[in-house]
Structure formats: structure tokens, C-alpha cells
User: Fold this.
Amino acid sequence: MVDRGTAFLISLVTSLFVAILVNFAFYYWVEPALQRSKRTTETVEKQIKNVEVPDLRGSLPSQAKLVLSQLGLSLVVEGEMESAEYPEGTIGEQRPLPGSVLQTGSSIYVKIVKTKEAQSVKVPPVMGLDLASAQRLIIEKGFLIGEIKKEANEEIPEGHVIKTYPPAGMELPKGSKVTIYVSAGAELVTVPRLIGKYLYQARGILEKAGLTLGNVYKQVSAEYPENKIIGQNPRPGAKVKKGTKVDITIATVREELY
Assistant:
């Protein structure tokens, strides 16, 4: 049997060994782990801070993302909305509202103003109106004035509208361009020179020029051979409406006296 003295000595040595082992473990393992945990907590506390939510309404999503990234916040697009206040493609609504306080790492939820579908309207009838009135009516309907072209027209007075392109009644998106065709009056042609020609030649020359033969007058002449044209009206080179009649005077021989 172990006497009481020896047992006490063994117990003392064992206690000292355990105490040394515990101190060793605490110094090399437990205390460093506690220090690391403390430093991590302090770092997280330093990184997380409160920031004020900026007003993102009216901004493009790309601009808003840049602003929020500098504050430690993120942007989440929830969907689209209609708005008469903010431009298409910009942020029209956000939550939380501007001025709210959030912790860094939080998200801002926004809605984007959607593109409106172009409204279609009919091109108004402006045929026969003067140019200024036609332009005003077309603009009032939401269209833009495209080209203004002139065309000869015998039925529509000069300076008044013949037609539009696209034509009246066609549905187009607002903002489309409409070309206006304006009457330049009747088409003018140049009267050819008939003097010196013969009667049988006159009709063909006039038809080729877009004109017609009018009255044929005779005048006794000893200078020119019979049926030779010695006068015309309108004069050669004159500008007249297409289809105008040209009167001519031809030579004839003097009648013999008995």
C-alpha cells in the first residue's frame, strides 16, 4: 500500500502538471483565438456604418449604381412604372425614401420609368388649303413638317396644297414627318416659233410643245408664198399654260380683178 505521504506527493505533482498544461494551452491556443475574434468584431464594427439614402429619382440606373457604390449601398431594380414627372429610362420611384438612414451593405429598391408607346393619329386632310394653314393643322395634330415640294397643277390654285405624303387619313405615330405638295399653278410651256413654217407643219409643232392650233387667219401677201405662216399669237418664246391655243396668220395670193 502507498502511504499517505506518497499519495499526497503524487496528487501534488499531478495537480501541478495539469495546471501547467492548462496554462500552456490557454497561452498558445485560447488567448490567440480570443484576440482574433476581438479583432474581427472590431473590424466589422468599423466597416458597418450608417449612411443617408440619396435621392435617386430622375437619375439613370447606371448613375445611381455609381452613387450608391460610393456609399456602400447597392441598387435593385424591381420593375417599371409610368411617370409624367421623370424622363423615360430614369428612376421614378425608390424605397427607402430619400433621407432615410441605412447601414452600409443595404439595398435601395427602385422602379424605372417605362418607354411610352407612340400614339398614332391620322394625317389631316389639307388639300386645297394655303400652305400656312396646312402646316399649322399638321403641326397641331402632332406631326412634323417634312419637305415642301411644288408641282404644276391646273385645278389647284398656285400656293395651295395638292396632297400630302403620307396621304390624308393614314395613321402614323405622333412626331412623324409629313411631306406637303404645293401647286405651282398650271404647267407653263414655251411657244415655238411658227413664222416661216407652213400651215401643214404648224399642228405637229404645237402638239409636240403641248399646245394646240387656234384660229387660222389669212392675209394677202405678195412677199410670201401661199399658206406660209407670217404671224402668230402668242409670240414665239412666250411662256403659256400647257394646252393654250396659238392663233396663226398665213399668206394668201391677191385676188385678180376682172
Remarks:
- Helices lie at 4-47, 61-71, 131-140, 199-208.
- The chain has three domains: 50-113, 120-183, 188-252.
